[in-house]
Specification:
This is DUF6238 family protein. Pfam families: DUF6238. Helices cover 68% and strands 0% of the residues. The chain has 153 residues and is an all-alpha fold. The longest helix has 27 residues.
Amino acid sequence: MSPDDRRDALPTSNAHPYLRAATAGLRHHTRTLTAQTAVGESARPADRPHLDSLHAHLTALHLLLDQIAERTRPERPASGRHLATAHARLWQAADAVHAAFHLLPTSAPGGSDCHPERLPEGPPVLTICQRHLAASHAVRRKTTAADLAIPAS
């Protein structure tokens, strides 16, 4: 087996343990929500802390996919282009979660508005808006508006 064949082989069971743990956590959360609905519990809408956590996951995954696409593109341009498309779609998902976060009701007057030019009143608005602003700067450096305007196929 050549070094190239080993690199393309499927990962071993202990490869990428943190990514595997994050995926397992998301699956567990999804099963919990599904089980609550199946048992007949009334479905509760998402709250701000829930969307903040989801946004954190999406932006972390966005950064990871960006790094993977950058490393893949020189050796395998076709795969790199597909990863770049996934990168743009992931940003669209994070942007939509951020928008949904600000549409949820809040106890503070005017607390649902996003004002990146000034510091929000506190968590979770502070964390999600700062994270979103940092991610948006990274997106603008590597992605065109036309790339982001294309609907997912």
